[in-house]
Predict the 3D structure of the following.
Amino acid sequence: MQSRSARLAGTARDPVHHPVFARYYARASVAAETRLGMAAVRGRLLTGLSGRVVEVGAGNGLNFAHYPGAVSEIVAIEPERALRALALEAALRADVPVDVAPGTAEALPVKSGAFDAAVLCLVLCSVRDVARALAEVRRVLRPGGEVRFFEHGRGGGRVMHFTQRTLDRTVWPPLAGGCHVARDAVGALREAGFVLGPYRRLMMPENGPALPQSYCVLGTAWRPAGDDPAGGG
Ligand SMILES: C[S@@+](CC[C@H](N)C(=O)[O-])C[C@H]1O[C@@H](n2cnc3c(N)ncnc32)[C@H](O)[C@@H]1O
């Protein structure tokens, strides 16, 4: 068994350490699969993918069961150790080969240009540096490679915007594992140099009350085909 000091040394080195949120998310995310229709959203997010895929901030690995058989390999990066342990279990049950690895979106521990697709699912809300994370996604995709994203963020009218910004400046990130509710995933992808494909806005839950975290977007973007293969910028 690991000693207490070894455990503490380990957690001190973890770039993302949200043990309470991780325990909550592990339960709530499984319930959301059926109650909020998340399983269907994950299916839509991943449909038609093929080749080598990097999934950034894979959490407890709930996407793994939804990858099509044409995907040859998934490298799933997850910095939070409790969620990563659950992702490892999910990887063992998956029909496609999944490698789960520690790391952060801001410094993906994988080679440049190595992936046909990158999956961002409810993760841009939580990374520390969105621009840096997206520069990394651009780096690791091959030119012409695809980003599939499902993110929540800014939405609603003025009152909702105000509420979202206030939450982001106060209680939300510390309570929700670093999550923010007022980010703009589509704008950030565009600013990072991706070519936006089709995307659609949706509410989660679809027919429930509009909560600050309800405003979602599901879509596709590409690393430009003529992008310098050596870098992301
Ligand atoms: C709301 S959860 C979503 C998990 C999973 N993608 C899903 O669809 O259920 C946010 C995830 O982002 C991860 N995360 C937080 N900061 C991160 C970072 N800097 N780089 C990569 N992942 C990060 C968290 O550990 C957590 O797994």
